Amino acid sequence: MHTPSEHAAYPTHWEADVVLRDGGTAQIRPITEADAQRLVSFYEQVSDESKYYRFFAPYPRLSDRDVHRFTHHDYVDRVGLAATVGDEFIATVRYDRIDARGMAATAPADEAEVAFLVQDAHQGRGVASALLEHIAAVARERSIRRFAAEVLPANTKMIKVFTDAGYTQKRSFEDGVVRLEFDLEPTDQSLAVQRAREQRAEARSVRRLLAPGSVAVVGTGREPGGVGRAALRNVLAGGFTGRTYAVNRAFPEGASRLLPEDVPAYRSVGDIEETVDLAVVAVPADQVPAAVADCGEHGVQGLVVLSAGYAESGPEGRDRQRELVRQARSYGMRVIGPNAFGLINTAPGVRLNASLSPELPAAGQVGLFSQSGAIGIALLSGLHRRAASLAGVSTFVSAGNRADVSGNDFLQYWHDDPATAVVVMYLESIGDPRKFTRLAKRTAAVKPVVVVKGARHGGTAPSGHAVPTTRIPDATVSDLFRQAGVIRVDTVTELADTGLLLAAQPLPGGPRVAILGNSDSLALLTYDACLTERLRPLPPHDLTTSAGPADFRAALTDALADDLCDAVVVTAIPWVGDASAAELAQSLREAVAAAPTAKPVAVVHLEIPGLAEALAAPREDPEAAPGPAAGGIPSYPAAERAVRALAQAARYAQWRKGTATPGRVPEYEDIDEAGAAADIDVLLAAHGEAAYGRARVSADGSPPGETAAAPAASSAPRSVQLSAADTQRLLARYGIPVLPALPAPGPDEAVRAAERLGYPVALKPTAPHLRHRADLGGVRLDLGGERELRRAYTELTDLLGKPEELRLVVQSMAPRGVDTVVRATIDPAVGAVLSFGLAGAPSLLLGDTAHRLVPATDRDAAELIRSIRTAPLLFGWRGTTPVDTKALEELLLRVSRLVDDHPEVVAADLEPVVVAPHGLQVLGATLRLAPPPVRTDLGPRRLPAY
């Protein structure tokens, strides 16, 4: 943080770390009066041509007046931002508010002139594009809606920065100058441009870590033993193709080689004459800052910090961890760790083992990310032991406390990495769930993403993970993963099982499974497991215990050629005869290779030594391409494990098919978005929340006045529940009528209400402790006249309490149907979540509620109502009349639109919603309003700061 101006409040929340196009990092922050000398030094390093493009005339140096003007800002009408690396400016941008004549102005003028200057050595790194995102967000926060820029025609690079940004633009040419004007309201195109740049930059930053040309191990011990020496040995043993250096400030003066490894030895990274791309840091935590400074001054691109003693050790360690990240980013470096196990890249041109794993795993197409070193070791050894040649590893990272580089960064990299076909992740916390869901969905559209999440029920991040926590239940997380196409499994064993199948076999075309083998009992177990996993097993084909390899081959050939079969499970037990496991494996592999259509095959075997290895052996053809066509077949020691992996693959394949025809968010002509916005403003003002304004977002995604350091995800905004009348009026704006209910404080008022509504009516309590408690018998239905109504009134007050305690209401009768519940809630970390289930105690006890992220598409709504276990009740279960699910889907979409259009609606609860054979009725509804929650996903690109 830099010293604030004495004349204006320094906006700390505008500070940000960003990843640039080449994968390096820079810091963006407001320019202050203390930056005068930095600005002068920066300007001296800019070429005459760049100065000419900026000022339209030769401008060799800045005058004192210029320096004062460019470093003194009010942070409202005049704002300057700088991009810095190593505390030196590499680029600047500023805006000045202007009026319609182009003269300096103050609010309410909503236009500003913007200008950039980028040091020549840093042009082409995407610095100007990043600065434009941040200065535009600052301007929007200060109620500036439009930028104007004048650029010389020859300055094509700057013109491209503006035209490629995706904003709505107007371009003109006058007096030899190109004038660009563009609105700052984010558009779908500008958001797409921003996210595409984010993906390229973050993927590049990971690529620099995974494919360095040189590695220095800082903290290599002088004697054998210790973490640093082990890390060095692992780099060398893995066959790293680049240069390797040993660094230890305790090495003797004049020492040039470390023996017996025979690698160059240095007392500091700065002593190395060649460039160093990656540093593996293995020194005590109190020595890490000096090591980081040494690396940063020498231009190291990334760090793998194996050292412990950070956030996992308590508050002091957490402060030490934040300082580590701040220091590294100030030099443009990314950090894996601290407390990391390391990273691995098996690519033949790299062969990097910068980890504590003693051996480089077999090369393959599985990308592994683990937040736990122990789980990472288990995954690596498990894949190697079971099928090293069947599902090897492309890249691996165990990120430890993952204070900087996270699973999101690796998703960006793996998305378009041709060497990775399957992504496997062990997560204990998700720092930015909204971004993770977005990235996972995009990656899952092209390759499987398999996740197991630890700490599911703790509600807190594990020790060392200094990230916000989310309050949403684990079941909701599962549904959101499913919506994003993420394959979520429960155990590390399932993670390996599923990853193995996906890496080695094609996706199934459907749920139909053929079962064949030489054991009727094992086939029946497989059949039952298929039914449990909602697959459609065909009748098992029993080959009997006398079957040999040729019989297996013939049966598998027939099954794979059958158009009614989508996948095959082969079951095998020890057989009668002399055939070997290798012969059986060869027969099965030949059948798979000869199949006219690629279908997944899994083998379940009991006590057949050598079969798994023989099935996994690579094809003898050296020209064979890696992946499902390579000829290996995964095997499992239990039917349930094989079938579960196959079911996960089938569900994922179905999701992939659905993404080919994505859903849409429908438009409804009767929605009054502007009227709803006006109502919300009035209601918030009436409850004292007017100061927050409407959905205004600061440059860091925070409400104005709230800094980036504020705990957004852990503190819910203040909210207020609307009255029944206000709720009904706001819902009506979105075409959601609520069946009127009139208060009945006494029996006479109840009669008058019934006469107004028309008989028959219902009488029910609305007190919070009695709502939705049908088990208490507190609702009276189909009251056809005054006598029945008065009798019901007396019964309820005698049974449940005084009228003022019950808050009784009279309501018109709705058509008979199925009672359901529709809800939308806001989690600051995840966003708006739409939920659906049936009303009543059974659904509550079973937790039978489904969830989708907002905005929901028509496809999401259809899947939502079909994904609960009690869905058959909506579709004519046991001969009942099916209800109007189309009307229900429309209601879900309208509620989704309401909370998406108006983030101030932080909770919506419609219960019960009675869905009849024709139409539906909303019998009860509550809405809660609050200042808009923080939206970090719509602001400019920035690295998280935990």
SSE layout:
Blueprint (H helix, E strand, L loop, with lengths): L15 E4 L5 E6 L5 H9 L3 H8 L8 H8 L6 E8 L2 E11 L12 E8 L8 H15 L4 E6 L4 H8 L5 E6 L2 E7 L4 H23 L3 E5 L8 H11 L5 E5 L9 E2 L4 E4 L11 E4 L6 H10 L4 E4 L9 H16 L3 E3 L5 E4 L6 E4 L7 E8 L2 H15 L5 E6 L8 H9 L6 E6 L5 H12 L4 E5 L20 H10 L3 E3 L2 H13 L7 E6 L2 H13 L3 E2 L3 E2 L6 H13 L5 E6 L8 H14 L6 E5 L5 H6 L18 E2 L2 H21 L13 H14 L33 E2 L2 H9 L8 E3 L3 H11 L3 E5 L14 E4 L2 H15 L2 H4 L1 E5 L5 E10 L3 E8 L2 H6 L2 E5 L4 H9 L18 H17 L3 E11 L4 E3 L2 E5 L17
Parallel strand pairs: 5-6, 9-10, 9-13, 10-12, 13-14, 14-15, 18-19, 18-20, 20-21, 21-22, 23-24, 23-25, 23-26, 26-27, 27-28
Antiparallel strand pairs: 1-2, 2-3, 3-4, 4-5, 6-8, 7-8, 11-12, 16-17, 16-19, 29-39, 30-33, 31-32, 31-33, 34-35, 34-37, 35-36, 37-38, 37-39
Q: Into which percentage range does the β-strand content fall?
A: 15-25%
What is the alpha-carbon Rg in Å?
A: 32 Å
Mean pLDDT: 88
The shape is: flat
Q: Mind describing the biggest β-sheet?
A: 8 strands, mixed
Oligomer state equals single chain
Sequence stretches where pLDDT stays below 50 over 5 or more residues? 1-6, 622-627, 690-716
Number of helices: 27
Helix proportion range: 25-40%
How far apart are the termini?
A: 15 Å
Order of strands in the sheet with the most strands? 1-2-3-4-5-6-8-7
Which class of secondary structure composition applies to the elements? alpha/beta
